[in-house]
């Protein structure tokens, strides 16, 4: 008998996905909140009856999603008030397309920053300043700053006065929002992004296109440094 599909080895489902679900249930049952520590890997392995390797893989998935922080030698701590994790398949799909999204952002937004420095009006500057204030308030309130970030990049786009480039940005708005969320989950990233946005704004205000481009590229290079892109889902099979 022949088949167009090759036979593949029979494997168990990803055990670490089941561990992630168990950790989420444990956090809810124990009432764990932001800043609380999970049990040690050894204790979790014993209680769940799985290897410590499976526990490590599950914790890495939670780390990639910005839900926990692994402190070397100090345990694993919640960064949110729950461990509600998205499906791993969704995570893998986002990891696959994220590099292309970041490439597109660099190509478009570097040019937008240049044009904004050349074409901005006083009204445009007011919009940029308002966006910075929104993000500053979010960061000071220990929020991720996603709305302020969105408003800032929208204000720079508007200041460029390029209908076609603005249309391109609208076309990939959903993917940009995904990359924004991914970046701002990184520890310390919201405050860092606010500082970088301020440098971009200063260059636009000074009508210095070269500095605006350099500042935007530096910012987007930082956006690229996310834990998700270091994660190799193929290594997580158990």
Describe it for me?
The protein has 238 residues and is mainly α. The protein is 68% helix and 3% strand. The protein is built from eleven helices and two strands. A hairpin with a 3-residue loop joins β1 and β2. α1 crosses α3, α4 crosses α8 and α4 runs antiparallel to α10.
Our Rg estimate from Cα atoms comes to 21 Å
Order of helices and strands: HHHEEHHHHHHHH
Task: Name the structural class.
Answer: mainly alpha
Proportion of residues in extended strands: under 5%
Q: Tags for this entry?
A:
238 residues, mainly alpha, 2 strands, 68% helix, 3% strand
Describe the structure concisely for a colleague.
This protein has helices at residues 15-30, 41-48, 52-64, 88-119, 122-140, 146-160, 163-171, 173-184, 189-205, 209-224, 227-230; strands at 68-71, 75-78. By secondary structure, it is mostly helical. A hairpin with a 3-residue loop joins strand 1 (68-71) and strand 2 (75-78).
């Amino acid at each position: 008998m022949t088949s167009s599909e090759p036979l593949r080895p029979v494997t168990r489902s990803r055990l670490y996905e089941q561990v992630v679900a168990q950790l989420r249930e444990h956090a809810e049952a124990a009432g764990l909140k932001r800043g609380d520590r999970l049990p040690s890997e050894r204790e979790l392995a014993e209680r769940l009856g799985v290897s410590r390797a499976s526990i490590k893989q599950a914790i890495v998935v939670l780390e990639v999603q910005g839900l926990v922080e692994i402190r070397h030698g100090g345990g694993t701590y919640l960064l949110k008030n729950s461990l509600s994790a998205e499906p791993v398949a969704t995570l893998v799909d986002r990891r696959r397309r994220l590099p292309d999204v970041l490439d597109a952002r660099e190509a478009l937004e570097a040019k937008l920053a240049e044009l904004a420095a050349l074409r901005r009006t006083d009204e445009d500057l007011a919009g940029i300043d308002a966006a910075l204030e929104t993000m500053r308030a979010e960061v000071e309130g220990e929020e991720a700053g996603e709305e302020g970030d969105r408003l800032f990049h929208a204000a720079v786009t508007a200041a460029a006065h390029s209908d076609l480039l603005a249309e391109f940005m609208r076309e990939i708005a959903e993917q940009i929002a995904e990359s924004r969320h991914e970046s701002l989950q990184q520890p310390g990233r919201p405050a860092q992004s606010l500082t970088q946005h301020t440098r971009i704004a200063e260059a636009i205000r000074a009508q210095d296109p070269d500095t605006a481009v350099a500042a935007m590229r530096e910012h987007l290079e930082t956006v690229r440094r996310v834990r998700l892109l270091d994660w190799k889902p193929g290594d997580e099979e158990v």
